[in-house]
Amino acid sequence: MKKGSYILLIELEEKETVKIGPGNRELEKGFYTYFGTAFGPGGLKRVERHSKQASGEKNVKHWHIDYLTTLEKSRMIKAVKFPEKDLECELASQAQNMIEAFGSTDCKCGSHLAYFHEREEGEALLEKMKAKYLNS
Ligand SMILES: [Zn+2]
Description:
This protein has helices spanning 45-55, 64-69, 88-93, 119-133; strands at 4-12, 16-20, 23-27, 30-38, 74-83, 113-116. With 136 residues, it is an alpha+beta fold. It has one domain. A 4-stranded antiparallel β-sheet has the order 5-1-4-6, sandwiched between helices. The chain has a two-stranded antiparallel sheet with strand order 2-3. The longest helix has 15 residues, at 119-133. The structure holds zinc ion. Residues 88-89, 92, 104, 107, 109, 112 line the site of zinc ion.
C-alpha cells in the first residue's frame, strides 16, 4: 500500500462539541478539510479507515480526526490522496479558519483541520491543492 498525504472533506450537519484531551472543541455546522499523512504501516489505507469510521462501520477513536468522523451528524464527502508526498503540514499551512489544536499534536502546526461555511469553499481548496501538488 502506498504511503503519502491526504485531505478529507467532511460535512457536519449540526453544531457539535467534541471533547479531546483536556479541552472541548466547538465545531460549527458546515464543512471541514483535514490534512493528514500516512507514512506508517498500511500507508494510505488509513483513508479507507477514515471513511469506514465516517459510515459508522467502525468506531475507534485514536486520532483527533476520529472524533469528527464518528459523529452521527458528520459524513465524509471525499478524500484526495497525494501518494509519496509528505505534505500534511505544508497543506495545512495554506488553509484558513483553522480549528485550534486539532490533529497537530505531532508537529508544530497550530492545527490540521480547517473550517468552511460553504461546501464550494472546501471543494475549491481541494482543487487548488490538486492542481498544485498532483502531477508535479
Ligand atoms: Zn503539521
